[in-house]
Amino acid sequence: MKSVTIKEVILHHINVSLIAPFTTSFGTMQHKDVCLVEVIDESGLSGWGETVTSDEPYYNEETTFTTVYMLKEFLIPRVIHKEIKHAEDVHDMLQFVRRNNIAKAAIETAIWDVFAKKNGQSIAELLGGRKHEIEVGKSIGIQKDPATLVEKVRVYVEEGFRKIKVKIKPGADIDYIAAVREVFPDIPLMADANSAYTLADINHLKQLDRFQLMMIEQPLAHDDIIDHATLQKELQTPICLDESIHTLEDARKAIELGSCKIINIKIGRVGGLTESKRIHDLCEANQIPVWCGGMLETGVGRAHNIQLTTLANFTIPGDTAPSSHYWEEDIVTPEITMNHGIISVPSGTGIGYEIDKEKLARVLLRTEKVTSSDSSHPIPS
Ligand code: OSB
Ligand code: MG
């Protein structure tokens, strides 16, 4: 394998607007600033990553602003001008910084991209992913009433999505799911609560058991795996953890405790592709199916999700919907499209898509260049 040495990092600050507001139990998203991280190696090859954050720390503790700070002050100085023998090594190089996983993933994934390109492979091939097609689901935000939700579901089912995920919160849950199930008794359906409930809601949540949901995602606190284990014993519906799993160790403990039967892997939340693969492998060994979550990413983050999903234990359709479901115009080319619920894995090297520089220019706020390892903080070598 050819190693890479990063000689320059360009932070592309962009502002993007979703085609429609997206509402979860923690708030509504419509516009967001994100930062695309471009790493350039000594041979002039570029790799791309994305901070899958928004402007507010409502999903987890990170925001785009905090990720940029961590990147500039700590993470880029740790990796720039160092010979990196394998992209797999970057995760451990960044562990001197506690948490800040979305910031770490932005640079880690960019290095996977450049490393894969340098070695003439796709990220999927480097990870050991074998699928050429991935199955896709649609995540639907909270709607104003159950009837509106049912009409949305109808559109997405007709488009061919392989899984429908409905966001729920107290006051917008049982009636909403019941309305969908009445019209669509057999579709693969699940709910995502984004931590909106507590154990006091156990009897309320048990009402979901009659709908044959594939799973309920993160019903309880964002940092909990204990109460989830208690809840799982009482619920027939499988629990899937999202917010609570940040590391391989978190996954191991959740599996041991019986806190979930399924795990949603988000590359940002777990700090990159290396940890995603490790969690995937652990789950596979424990018969825990996984699927790839989404963070309303631009094409860069979405491309990484597609590459990761080629691994065998991603047996449940992910949240990686096509570009047109998020953006008037995505920044990658070709556009990410879907055919009857299937995305074909691109054949190119790295992330498999190109950045469209003209489209990028239309959403660009500013760029910043980092070329030196200088930092006002002590950085391990
Ligand atoms: O909990 O999965 C989530 C979006 C932002 C923050 C958290 C979540 C989501 C989604 C959207 O569900 C998935 C997508 O379509 O990208
Ligand atoms: Mg979720």
Account of the 3D structure:
The protein has 381 residues and is an alpha/beta fold. The protein has two domains: 128 residues, Enolase-like, domain 1; 231 residues, Enolase-like C-terminal domain (TIM Barrel), CATH 3.20.20. 32% of the residues lie in helices and 22% in strands. The chain is built from twelve helices and 16 strands. The two termini are 22 Å apart. The model has no long low-confidence stretch (mean pLDDT 97). The site of 2-succinylbenzoate has 11 residues, from loops. 2-succinylbenzoate binds next to loops.
* Bound heterogens, unique: 2-succinylbenzoate, magnesium ion
- The CATH homologous superfamily of the largest domain: Enolase-like C-terminal domain
Main sheet specs = 7 strands, parallel
Distance between the termini: 22 Å
Q: Give the overall pLDDT as a whole number.
A: 97
> How many beta strands in the DSSP annotation?
16
Q: Helix-strand pattern, N to C?
A: EEEHEHHHEEHEHEHEHEHEHEHEEEHE
Q: What percentage of amino acids are in beta strands? A: 15-25%
Strand order of the largest sheet: 6-7-8-9-10-11-12
- Residues in helix, %: 25-40%
Rg over alpha carbons? 20 Å
* Poorly predicted residue ranges: none
Oligomer: single chain
Number of helices: 12
